[in-house]
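Hello Y.,

Per our agreement to keep a running log of every chain we model this quarter, I'm adding this entry. I've kept the format consistent with earlier entries: sequence first, then predicted structure.
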Amino acid sequence: MSNSETGVLLGAADIRELAAALGVRPTKQRGQNFVIDANTVRRIVRTAEVGPEDVVVEVGPGLGSLTLALLDTADRVVAVEIDDVLAGALPATIGARLPAKADSFALVHSDAMLVRELPGPAPTALVANLPYNVAVPVLLHMLDTFPTIERTLVMVQAEVADRLAAAPGSKVYGVPSVKANWYADVKRAGSIGRNVFWPAPNVDSGLVSLVRRAEPVKTTASKKEVFAVVDAAFAQRRKTLRAALAGWAGSAAAAEAALVAAGVSPQARGEALTVEEFARIAEHKGAAS
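Predicted structure for the entry above:
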């Protein structure tokens, strides 16, 4: 018997019923779009390769569509929810639909950007339907704060998915691409249409898979130093790195010295560089002195 037949997962009618009972109207401000299609959440869990030994952290569980599918498969799920009403209702939804797994579920009522620790065993996976406006900062914060997260699958606006998974040289390659790549190998893992959400957004969504690097980027520079170079390079992305990094290095000449020492052309632009090259530039700050 499949999940839908046992009534574990939420369908469109269930979602609307729950929302009405709670007086919940999805808000644009929080970028709330609830997934109303059971096949989509099953596909997300499958694509995320969640298994019975996984401890999954989910950000923004909403009414619980994805939470139930994750809990049905994983060992344990910890959901981080900022919304008071949704956070208050979720444990009851889990208890009603998946009582056998209620003890394997924990709720953290907080802004994900402020979360520094999670209850119970360390998370092995992050799976989330992230609101467009906070997707990148939340993703990077979680990867940074919880180094035990090996696999991540996030559903984000298609444009954000493209940016995260972009390779050097691509038009949409930028700060999110480089920073995500500091932590993980990143790739697009599928597309999601608008009709699986309520309310239906006016953009398509995409799945992004991030598998943590087995070996971190080899560098003597700190993450903060590397990210400072990345931010400077893309703040004026049309400029050559010699010009774009002048403020970061102290002068255009100092920027040129760092670039040459790092083996990067001063005439190159940020969008052509790998995360490893940004790290080398960070290592050679002050090369002229």
